[in-house]
Amino acid sequence: MRLSEFILANREPILAEWEAFARTCSPASGSMDIESLRDHADQMLTVIAADLNTPQDKSEQKEKSTGNKPVVDDSTTAAEEHGAGRAESGFSVEQMVAEFRALRASVIRLWTKSQGEIAADDIDDLTRFNEAIDQSLAESVSRYTQDLDNSKEMFLAMLGHDLRSPLGAIIMSAEFMLETKELEEPHLTLASRIASSSKRMQHMIGDLLDFTRSRLGGGIPIERADMSMEKLVHDVVSEVSAAHPASKITIDARDGQRGEWDCARISQALTNLVVNAVEHGEEGAKVTVSVGGDDKEALVAVHNRGVTISPEQLNGIFGPMKSRDAAARPGSSAYGNLGLGLYIAERIVSAHKGHIEVDSSSERGTTFTMHLPRCP
What we know:
About 60% of the residues lie in helices and about 10% in strands. It is α+β, with helices and mostly antiparallel strands. The chain has 2 domains: about 1-220, no CATH class; about 225-375, Heat Shock Protein 90 (2-Layer Sandwich), CATH 3.30.565. Strands 2-4-5-7-6 form a 5-stranded mixed beta sheet. A hairpin with a 3-residue loop joins β6 (about 355-360) and β7 (about 365-375). α1 packs antiparallel against α3, α2 runs antiparallel to α6 (about 95-115) and α7 packs antiparallel against α8 (about 185-215). The termini are far apart.
């Protein structure tokens, strides 16, 4: 009996063995939906049997062996549904992979036992069967990973959103106490510290929300309006200088640098770049923010001298969670200790259809340059 015929004729013993194994790796967090398990497995066996009966040339076999199975339609496969169910049920990826190993072993053991002897055609069936199992496993793992990542990022988004309200109350209370001008030492210093630390937390939560928004597919929203880049640079430098009074930040900006940008978002991106330069620059060395460009785009460059960024760090420096804290000055309180500052800056500039260039060397120092088209 060919393997495809055996699978269709012996669904129940195959499913019974797989179900028995799956029960042994059910997570402690909840009971397993046996009905869904059998349904997914039954559908996967049907797909596998059909695949074994489909003629396949060497080119198609090579493509499938490398995971390039042709897409027939956009519908969700049984294997993908299985992966989604396992992610929702709290299974680990190791447990889910073990299920497919058990399914493979059950089918091969029961079939070879019924065959008695293995013929030449049986070897071809076994090869095709293993390819089909691997394809189903790849689909399940891909969907499992995608759903698990989305769940984590949704949790971070909800956490960041929920933290904003109590943090806002702390900031308002601290600022109210400072505005009364009735506090004496040490209470004045303590209230000032609460206000400044809370604002840093607020900045980090904002970056966290932007990160989750971009990862969940929404991107970072922007609202364009005519604005002055020169004024924005002065405002950002004034704010960062107030938070880092020991730093020397100079501005080289030309008049008339206007364009259609989202003022709040560009301010956020530039703040991240300037703070990054302050935290990673040489102590006592100045940071320079320059504004230039031409009729088509504005260039905003942030330059500092300090530890050179190695080629290894430059590769993927705008990726999330790429922290450079090891190179920061001792005692610094970087905004970007989540490793999101440069990532958010790059995402904001990309949302404006621009890009950021990085140049770092021991002779010239390090320069981050934002290229921002003046019009959408």
